[in-house]
Specification:
Number of strands: 0
Largest sheet: none
Structural class: mainly alpha
Helix content: over 70%
Mean pLDDT: 83
Order of helices and strands: HH
Length: 104
């Protein structure tokens, strides 16, 4: 918030008091406080809307990251299955070669 509201409020109240008396000064002060309250309330709702938008973006990012992790885990599992299959094939091949050498 800016400090331009406060000096203007007091200056308006002083001018109203000089020109029209206590009632006008009170009216100016009450109107100024209402304007100040409206500005603070608008700022609070703007901040709340910003926080809600940031929360939505954070949730969307978390969901995107989680889905990426699931996909990465699936790819890793597939890769590990292929590696295990290759290792078994090499093991079986070496075992057969070893058996042929012993028997022959």
């Amino acid at each position: 918030m800016s400090d331009t509201t406060s000096p203007g409020l007091l200056a308006a109240a002083a001018a109203a008091f000089r020109d029209h008396g206590v009632t006008a000064a009170m009216t100016a002060l009450i109107g100024g406080f209402i304007a100040l309250f409206a500005a603070v309330t608008r700022r609070a709702f703007t901040n709340e809307a910003l926080l809600q938008r940031l929360d939505r973006e954070l949730i969307a990012d978390r969901e995107r990251i989680d889905s990426q992790r699931v996909e990465d885990r699936k790819l890793d599992a597939d890769r590990l299955d292929r590696i295990e299959t290759d290792i078994r094939a090499v093991r079986d091949l070496l075992f057969e070669a070893f058996q042929r050498n012993r028997s022959g």
